[in-house]
């Protein structure tokens, strides 16, 4: 039976969980993210209802729809946040594109991470 990422992280010893969280901040590609969450392309394909070759192509793309990226991340148990940053203003998280009440402020002290 597949395990949820939150359950897996909760089961790790504190030091291992800290190392995983630090490593997650260093990730640069979708492949890195998938491998860090211990998913195979075949598993991702099954969850997303596509072929393994589609996952391979998706991971090599440099441009894609946000909905595609969100679906990919959520299939691993994650959450995708789009953060807008302006000089001299706090970061803003866009939760739902195209919805008027879709923006909430992020506290200044948090530093969003780009992947």
TrEMBL record:
Pfam family, one: HTH_37
Gene Ontology molecular functions: DNA binding
SUPFAM superfamilies found in the cross-reference section: lambda repressor-like DNA-binding domains
InterPro entries tied to this protein: Cro/C1-type_HTH, HigA2-like_HTH, Lambda_DNA-bd_dom_sf
PROSITE patterns documented for this protein: HTH_CROC1
Domain (HTH cro/C1-type) ranges: 30-60
Gene3D superfamilies the UniProt entry points to: lambda repressor-like DNA-binding domains
Highest taxon listed in the record's lineage: Bacteria
Protein name in UniProt: Helix-turn-helix domain-containing protein
Highest classification ranks of the organism: Bacteria, Pseudomonadati, Pseudomonadota, Gammaproteobacteria, Chromatiales
């Amino acid at each position: 039976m597949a395990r949820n990422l939150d359950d897996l992280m909760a089961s790790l010893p504190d030091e291992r969980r800290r190392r995983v969280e630090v490593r997650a901040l260093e990730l640069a590609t979708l492949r890195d993210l998938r491998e860090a969450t211990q998913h195979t392309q075949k598993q991702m394909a099954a969850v997303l209802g596509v072929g393994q070759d589609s996952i391979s192509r998706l991971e090599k793309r440099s441009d894609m729809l946000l909905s595609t990226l969100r679906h990919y991340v959520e299939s691993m148990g994650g959450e995708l946040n789009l953060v807008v940053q302006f000089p001299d203003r706090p970061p803003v998280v866009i939760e739902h594109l195209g919805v008027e009440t879709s923006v909430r402020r992020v506290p200044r002290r948090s530093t969003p991470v780009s992947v």
